[in-house]
């Protein structure tokens, strides 16, 4: 069994990149694929999701001897030991409609902590990769570390939502936060792809991103990329992001603090981190 102490992050990053490169043509060819598995009224998986997950999972497990937890077929617990987390088609609605804001996400978790991430955006001919010790690699080349940034001079990505929905992060409160942010940021953007939002934050295209999704396969790759670039990744309560978190907020130094201040001003402690939601972690 692979242990954290034996991990060679540069080697794993190289191997994982080769695996993702091997499926790029199939990803591009499937653009516009219709729903194959309905999950909800607006959430579904295409046949490309299913086929790529099987292929990537098998090759990664064989070449790295590390198990994979995928969006479509599951896998081992994401908060124990060493495990890959995979989203073969992130931004599925975008992908199905032909919008290029979509990609392949792959992260490596060690006891729930994001250590390595890859976000391949084949329709943009972009590859983002890195491990938490840095640097962020863009198309294989080291990128500059993120410089301190202010909300007033940056674009911030915000996760899509329905204002009439309830739940942990009720839609009307998400609307309250975006209303407050609109008066503080240079621009707001809603791409429909968590992978794009977090990779663009790591690369400094966006100053930060607010994501309300809880799935590790969506959030772990980007959390690792942002940290590799020198940025900050927490949940909505300000706790450093882990696989059991129910949200993720990322940002450049300085800007992340401003984002959290705005969220706190609007919702107070409504979205504060509860120990039971983080599996006992403080």
TrEMBL record:
Pfam families: Inositol_P. Keywords: Hydrolase, Magnesium, Metal-binding. Mg(2+) 1 binds at residues 71, 87, 218. Its cofactor is Mg(2+). GO terms for molecular function: inositol monophosphate 1-phosphatase activity; metal ion binding. InterPro entries: Inositol_monoP_metal-BS, Inositol_monophosphatase-like. Mg(2+) 2 binds at residue 90. One of its GO terms (biological process) is inositol metabolic process. SUPFAM superfamilies: Carbohydrate phosphatase (SSF56655). PANTHER family: INOSITOL MONOPHOSPHATASE, INOSITOL-1-MONOPHOSPHATASE-RELATED. This is Inositol monophosphatase ImpA. It comes from Gordonia rhizosphera NBRC 16068.
């Amino acid at each position: 069994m692979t242990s954290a102490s034996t991990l060679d992050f540069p080697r794993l990053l190289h191997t994982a990149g080769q695996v993702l490169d091997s499926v790029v043509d199939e990803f591009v060819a499937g653009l516009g694929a219709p729903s194959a598995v309905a999950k909800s009224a607006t959430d579904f998986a295409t046949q490309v999701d299913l086929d790529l997950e099987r292929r990537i999972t098998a090759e990664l497990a064989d070449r790295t001897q590390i198990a994979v937890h995928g969006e479509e077929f599951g896998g081992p617990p994401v908060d124990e030991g060493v495990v890959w987390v995979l989203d073969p088609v992130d931004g599925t609605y975008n992908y199905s409609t032909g919008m290029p804001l979509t990609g392949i996400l792959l992260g490596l978790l060690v006891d729930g902590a994001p250590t390595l991430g890859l976000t391949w955006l084949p329709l943009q001919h972009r590859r983002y990769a890195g491990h938490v010790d840095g640097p962020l690699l863009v198309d294989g080349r080291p990128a500059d570390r993120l410089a301190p940034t202010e909300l007033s001079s940056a674009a911030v990505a915000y996760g899509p939502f329905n204002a009439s929905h309830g739940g942990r992060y009720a839609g009307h409160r998400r609307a309250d936060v975006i209303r407050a942010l609109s008066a503080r940021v240079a621009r707001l953007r809603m791409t429909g792809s968590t992978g794009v939002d977090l990779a663009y934050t790591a690369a400094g295209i966006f100053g930060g991103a607010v994501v309300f999704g809880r799935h590790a396969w969506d959030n772990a790759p980007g959390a690792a990329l942002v940290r590799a670039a020198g940025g900050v990744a927490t949940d909505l309560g300000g706790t450093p992001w882990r696989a059991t978190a129910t949200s993720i907020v990322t940002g450049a130094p300085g800007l992340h603090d401003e984002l959290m201040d705005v969220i706190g001003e609007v919702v107070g402690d409504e979205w504060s981190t509860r120990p039971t939601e983080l599996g006992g972690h403080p």
